[in-house]
Write a structure and sequence with these properties.
Blueprint (H helix, E strand, L loop, with lengths): L7 H16 L4 E7 L6 H11 L10 E7 L4 E6 L1 H6 L2 H16 L3 H19 L14 E3 L2
Parallel strand pairs: 1-2, 1-4
Antiparallel strand pairs: 2-3
Helix pairs in contact: 1-5, 4-5
Length: 144
């Protein structure tokens, strides 16, 4: 049986956060959950970014939230379009907010809040367009 750290209800909370965040922007947000990350989470997230086809969005405005549950590692990685639009302060503040939630055991809330904050930033720089298409599936991916 595949490893899944979240209940169906918890997964639905996260999926609803993605849908809400993407409702008002043309950006794409994905969540990837690992059980372990023995190395650098940024390195792992960069590899996943390509594997999940996140570099293939037209405006390069995808964001990946990567979390390794057991090793307590995570990162937020934005494609070049969104990374150039927002300041490092945004990435740092979002990371710090996640860390605060995680440190009190609120993993789902930390991820959900980060997704919604990314959506707000994407809306500022990449607002929803009438011809907008969902370029990537709204899903949570796992390493099995």
């Amino acid at each position: 049986m595949a490893w899944r750290p979240f209940s169906a209800e918890q997964e639905e909370v996260l999926l609803n956060s993605i849908r809400e965040a993407e409702r008002n922007c043309s950006g794409e947000i994905r969540i990837h959950i690992d059980q372990y990350c023995k190395g650098d989470p940024v390195f792992k997230a960069r590899n996943l970014f390509g594997h999940l086809k996140m570099t293939e969005t037209e405006l390069h405005n995808g964001v990946l939230i990567y979390v390794a549950i057991e090793d307590r590692k995570f990162c937020i990685l934005g494609d070049e379009g969104i990374h150039q639009a927002v300041t490092q302060t945004f990435w740092d503040a979002t990371r710090d907010a996640m860390l605060t939630k995680f440190s009190t055991g609120h993993i789902i809330e930390g991820i959900s809040d980060a997704v919604l904050e990314c959506g707000r930033q994407l809306k500022n720089y990449f607002p929803y367009q009438d011809n907008d298409q969902n370029e990537l599936p709204d899903e949570i991916s796992y390493d099995d």
